[in-house]
Design brief:
The complex is a heterodimer.
Chain A: H1 2-54, E1 88-89, H2 91-97, H3 116-122, E2 129-137, E3 140-154, E4 157-171, E5 182-194, E6 205-217, E7 223-227, H4 229-237, E8 242-255, E9 258-265, E10 274-281, E11 284-288, E12 300-301, E13 311-316, E14 320-328, E15 342-343, E16 350-355, E17 365-373, E18 379-387, E19 393-397, E20 406-415, E21 418-428
Parallel strand pairs in A: 1-20, 10-18
Antiparallel strand pairs in A: 2-19, 2-21, 3-4, 4-7, 5-6, 5-8, 8-9, 10-11, 11-16, 12-15, 13-14, 13-17, 14-16, 17-18, 20-21
Chain B: H1 2-62, E1 67-72, E2 84-91, E3 94-101, E4 108-115, E5 121-123, E6 132-137, E7 140-146, E8 153-154, E9 160-169, E10 172-182
Parallel strand pairs in B: 5-10
Antiparallel strand pairs in B: 1-9, 2-3, 2-8, 3-4, 6-7, 7-10, 9-10
Classes of the chains: A alpha+beta, B alpha+beta.
Amino acid sequence: MHVTLDNAFAFSILILILITIMGYIIPSAYVSFTTIKEHQLEEIAQSIMDKILLSPGVPENWGDIHTVQSEEYLKAFGLQKANGSLYELDVDKILRVASVNTTTTVTLPSTVRISPDTIARLLGLSNEYGFSIRITPALNVSFEVLAMHCIKQTGHDCVYSVPSRIRITVKTPEGRPAIGANVTGLYILTTLEDNPGNPHDPNDAVANFTFFFVKDVTDWKGEAELEFGNPLEGVKNENRALRRTCTSMVVYVDYYGIRAVNSHIFKDYSDFEDFLNSTIIDNYLVLEFDDAPGIPNGARKLKHSGVYEPEVGLANPPYYIYLSGLEDITEAPPGLGESGWIINRGNFRIRVYSLSNIVDDDVVLIMLPVSVPTSGGGRRWILVNFFREPSNVICQKGTASGNIKTSVLKRMVRVGSFHYIVEVRVWRWGER
Amino acid sequence: MPSSAFETAILTTALYGVMLIVINMFSVVSQWVFIDSLRIRLNEVANQVAYEIAGIYSMCLQSKGELAFFKPIEIPVSISEQGYAIELKKIGEVWHVVVYMETNRAINASSPIWEDPGVAVHVGPRASDGDLFTIIRNHGSYTVYYVKEDGALHSGVGKPVVWARKQRYGDQVEIRVGLGWLGG
């Protein structure tokens, strides 16, 4: 009987050894392997970042939709501006890769967008890796309205008032106050006024863009207060026949050589009935109607009485905006198209307008007032905004959810005259 | 007790059998762990070479004129006392750096470079490029030997490099990148 006990004891020891090996030695070896693999992900991320930021792709000027009309013609991927300097990116390429709608950036229609899948394929990442590219201004700028100014008065009653003192807060990407930063605020007052040629028609109006700038330096909290009371008093003295007003601001910040820009529409202080964000590529304004919830698909008239041509305002910080005419170039089959001056869904989901003036590299915000007829015979006025600056551009393939390990790299780049932070995040699918 | 002797023989044999299985299992598991550790180290080399190639290509792109240059790569002479080889290989449409053990090609790792664009940038030398190119500088000259198409860079080689050349062929400007070693 004791022989059985001896053997049973020996078996137990062997099983114990087996469990020790399986339960301790192997996991401890693989923990270090996982750590090394995570470290290796950094090299992949670095390599991807170099390819994205230091090569223009093939063809080099693929941001031009005439050169590369759709993603199938793109042979290699890179965001560098063709013939640009190191870490200088092309704004049109950035706009073409945006794959997520944010508060400011609207993605282009899928026909001209370069999808994350195509980018992954061209970078050789296939299905093994996921990635995201995020582009944000190099400095965080926020806006706060401190005071209003009346620009139209009837008797003692103020009919139209607009923001006049605005606090600008500037922070570094790490969240620290940017002390001593030079701030230039470009104030843009978009107004709809009586059409001089047809002043009594409530459905007719002309758009005006009035702008002025003020400079200041941020204090120890990274704050600067910009006062626009004086120029607004000038607007008041002009005694315009106002119908709608909207204030927009483009802030340019120079913080020891880091130049950042940010735009803001003060929607809460506007008389426009609605706002619509849309997108731009090259000098084409693109409106995609599926992306406009709550806005009727009815005609949006740009030309009201034949007296004037529609114009858009292009904000070119730090000092001015300029105007451009526009032309509907949506290809409409004969008999099916609407008038060239109507933004109308009609049979088409996408409307494209060509700007007659060249869009400067530094143009960050484009504003276009339009009107929508209501069922009662009146009109609703809508301000269409095109945020061209990469204020929050995201391109991502998949999502790194859960405990998946990611490698994140950041780099400051230049787009036009302004600096931005590019964040590249890479992860390996199935690695936890 | 005759049954006791029989029982002893059976149980002792079984014990040796289990011991053998445990030892074999240990050996197999150790082998797995060892191969995985080799793969990870090969992957490290593959990633490093892919990164250097992406870097040298980016540098080449910034140049306006024709250019030929190289960058030494610091890779281990051996991995676990064994030699390995590095190849630039097109898998599907994507160029990869593939690193494998000389003794067993099944133990390998790869890192992607990019999808072959077919124009503007190519991997490896032209067939007409010969075996080497020479770069002359003020302080001396360097001879870079190409790793040809279907060739491999072996870990024992003295001065491994990645190289890039930007050359004009008629109206076309072409960039070529590849592996090689420094002669002399």
